Amino acid sequence: MRTFVLAKHAMPQIKSDVPASQWHLSADGIAGAKRLAERLRQYEPSMIVSSSEPKALETAAIVAEMLGVQLESAFGLHEHERPEAGLLDRAEFERRVAELFARPAEVVFGAESANDALRRFATAVDRTLVENRGDVVVISHGTVISLFVAARAHEDGRSLWGMLGLPSYVVLELPKFRVTDLVAAV
Length: 186
Known about the structure:
By secondary structure, the chain is α/β, with parallel strands linked by helices. It has helices at residues 27-40, 54-67, 90-102, 114-131, 142-153, 157-163, and strands at 2-8, 47-50, 70-73, 136-140, 168-174, 178-183.
């Protein structure tokens, strides 16, 4: 059995005047990334592959260093594109994400539809799995992870999105993409 882990990045330092795609890890995030590394050690990954967004890449760098494995960043693993700066209150943010899952073919939040984000992310994941034959950990973001798991493992993506903390992870058995573990918060 080949194991594939999709991990959500650790806690960023939130800055309302900066788009979320440019946020870096907070002090709590650094500690969370270290906890994530210890939890991922049991899977003995051969490679850590990350989104290029700073909060994911910084999480991945900590994990890779602690596990003594190579780190790569891959195009297409970034979050659902939401290029605008500014913060929505929690209820409004959750409403917009729910709309994204409910109307996946439409651009209802951010700059791309859920289907477009899924297509981009799935292409990057598939390329990563072909290029790296061992057990791989991809460190990315909650929305695209949830869209992918919903599509490949036939899980409820919206519910999964609501469960994933900072950091968290989903373990999939390949080649069937069967979910074998879900750790909602590390």
